[in-house]
Amino acid sequence: MRKNIVAGNWKMNTTVAEGIELAKAVAAKSSEVPASVKLIIAPPFTHLVPVAEAIKGSCVGLSAQNCADKEKGAYTGEVAADMLVSAGCGYTILGHSERRQYYGETDEKLVVKVKLAIANGLSPIFCVGENLDEREAGRHFDVVSAQVKNVLYTLSAEEMAKVIIAYEPVWAIGTGKTATAEQAQEIHACIRKVVAEKFGDLADEITILYGGSCKPSNAKELFACPDIDGGLIGGASLKADDFIAIALSF
Ligand code: PGA
After folding, report:
1. Which of the residues 12, 14, 27, 95 could staple to 18 if both were Cys, CB 3.0 to 4.6 A apart?
2. DSSP assignments along 205-223, one per residue
């Protein structure tokens, strides 16, 4: 059985003090969430160490939002995978569309990052998704399949078993526009098929999250779809009550 996961991507929000408060609120309410649902929070780098402390003793997992494509050394401003592990992370988001769009993250770089993350013991939350032009041109299946193949087909089955995939249509991120459950399900099924073409039955074990304006009011319908195993939540993860309400939507 694959895991259900609800992960909160805080993006570039909250001060350290606000982040600790939010993390504590999530940890305090996490006992309301059934053990079959894994909660993960992804604060900014500056918050990781104190947030790890704030969620200690709870079941909430800690994720970074990115990691370097180098192991260590003279790479000013970068944070390496083993540093994230030493800060208490078990996960890192990689290939978020905001990083692809604003910071020139390419599939080639993501291959390196995903492999380094896994080699250091992190589970990558690997993001894929088409933009509005690609969706309107009917190219969404091709775009998302290529993103999956270009990066994840370079992995061994053992490495692939560590990966969580997040499908996030760019046109739905932070816009209030959610993909319909049908639109999301058909892409999730396509992603699982693409994974199965390379990795066989392992595809059934891979958690595939939906992201893009997911909130308490639409999570239930999305999570009811057979190939949607949870959510990567941006805006709604900044309120502990909303984040927990989403996790209670299975
Ligand atoms: P959103 O962001 O929930 O604010 O749309 C999701 C994401 O980008 O991970």
Report:
1. 14
2. G--EEEESS--HHHHHHHH
Q: Pick the atom of ligand 1 nearest to 127's CA.
A: 9
Residue 212 domain boundaries: 4-247
Is 47 an active-site residue?
no
Concerning whether 96 is annotated as a catalytic residue, the answer is yes
Catalytic residue among 96, 105, 134, 140: 96
- Cβ of 212 closer than 6 Å to ligand 1, yes or no, is yes
Could you tell which of 5, 9, 91, 177 is best to mutate to test the pocket of ligand 1, judged by most ligand atoms within 8 Å of the CB?
A: 9
> What 3-state DSSP class applies to 4?
strand
The torsion angles phi and psi of 93, rounded to 5 degrees, stand at -70, 140
Share of the chain above pLDDT 90, in %: 97
Give residue 209 CA to ligand 1 midpoint distance, Å: 12
Give the separation between CA 93 and CA 88, rounded to whole angstroms. Answer: 15
In tens, the pLDDT along 169-191 reads 999 999 888 889 999 999 999 99
Q: Render pLDDT for 122-177 as a digit per residue (tens, 0 to 9).
A: 999 999 999 999 999 999 999 999 999 999 999 999 999 999 999 999 999 998 88
- Give residue 219 CA to ligand 1 midpoint distance, Å: 13
CA dihedral 211, 223, 4, 93 (to 10 degrees): 0
Q: Give the total number of structural domains in the chain.
A: 1
CATH number of the domain residue 204 falls in: 3.20.20.70
DSSP string, 47-72: GHHHHHHHTTTSS-EEEES---SSSS
Ligand 1 centroid to residue 176 C-alpha, Å: 9
